[in-house]
Write a structure and sequence with these properties.
Number of helices: 9
Order of helices and strands: EEEHEHEHEHEEEEEEHEHEHEHEH
Largest sheet: 9 strands, mixed
Helix content: 25-40%
Oligomer: single chain
Strand content: 25-35%
Length: about 325
């Protein structure tokens, strides 16, 4: 293979929402290094979900199919992927940074005497070598990470770091692979899959988000921003102080301790731009910030900035939208 392999998570025939983001990262890395890009999905009866990837620019899609992969286990995934990697020898293995990947990917990398670079947010090419960027200390520091030794090299991609809508279209064949997998190799007994706590709103799926911060001053002013969200057909979100104060439910918090989002439009209202908040929304396609402080850090990541009092700017925006 000697290219880039994207291992994409699926459950019950549906790709994880971060899977296509990881595939976008693999495509971009492959293009930058002039390497072919492959994809792999695992499970039992996975050819239909593999076919959903056939419209993207890929060299091949591996449908790794076995009854013992019907339920996820780290043992089964490690054995099956190790066989695929040893047979095709990719240079890079790219995965989404999901709960499942965090479970099996270190085991897989170790089985091949390699390490995993987890939760990468970006990359660059330096003298023909891939350099990954990771955040440390809740996003306060960006660290460059280079691979040493022989490939394959393993990396997982942070949710929201790459956009699925940047995927290149194309045509790719699907190849079914049946790994040599025996029941005795599955040492763990599958349990119910991990489920995140139920949320009334999934901000990660929102196309437009209006997010409010300390500048709103008090809970009674939240409806001012809610009217803007309604006018835009957007979801209302918040920075941590708003949720900590109970002015909005925790499920609407964006940031390192809340949800990671990457909408088409993110409108930050009265948000200064603490690094913990930026970590959760920096992948947004277009960022608009409203803040009366011209030195607010939020303007460093904003595509458009309005310096002004939100209590004047927001009503004017609502009027213009109507």
């Amino acid at each position: 293979m000697s290219g880039v392999l994207a291992v994409l998570e699926q459950l019950n025939g549906k790709l994880h929402k971060s899977a296509l983001e990881a595939l976008a990262a693999a495509q971009q890395i492959g293009a930058a290094l002039n390497l072919p890009v492959f994809a792999a999905v695992l499970g039992s009866g996975v050819e239909p979900v593999a076919q959903t990837l056939a419209g993207y620019k890929l060299t091949k899609i591996h449908a790794i199919d076995h009854e013992l992969l019907r339920q996820y286990t780290p043992d089964g995934y490690t054995v099956a992927l190790k066989q695929l990697i040893e047979a095709h020898r990719p240079r890079y293995v790219i995965l989404p940074h999901t709960y499942q990947v965090r479970d099996f990917a270190p085991k897989l990398a170790t089985a091949l005497n390699r390490v995993l670079v987890g939760d990468a947010i970006a990359y660059r090419i330096d003298n023909g070598a891939l350099v990954l960027v990771r955040q440390l200390f809740q996003g306060k520091i960006n660290a460059d990470v280079r691979f040493a030794g022989e490939p394959p090299y393993f990396a997982s991609i942070q949710a929201g770091a790459f956009r699925a809508d940047t995927l290149e279209a194309g045509a790719a064949p699907v190849e079914k692979t049946i790994p040599d997998l025996q029941p005795a190799q599955i040492r763990t007994k599958p349990q119910e899959p991990f489920r995140e706590s139920q949320r009334a709103v999934d901000l990660g799926a929102a196309q437009i988000i209006v997010s409010v911060g300390r500048g709103i001053k008090e809970a009674g002013n939240i409806p001012v921003v809610q009217k803007l969200a309604d006018a835009l057909g957007a979801e209302l979100a918040a920075s941590r102080p708003i949720c900590d104060n109970g002015w909005l439910p925790m499920e609407r918090q964006v940031g390192s301790s809340g949800q990671t989002v990457a909408p088409k439009l993110y409108l930050a209202v009265g948000i200064s731009g603490a690094i913990q908040h930026l970590v959760g929304m920096k992948g947004s396609k277009t960022i608009v910030a409203i803040n009366k402080d011209p030195e607010a850090p939020i303007f460093e990541v904003a595509d458009y900035g309005i310096v002004g009092d939100l209590f004047e700017v927001v009503p004017a925006l609502i009027a213009a939208l109507k």
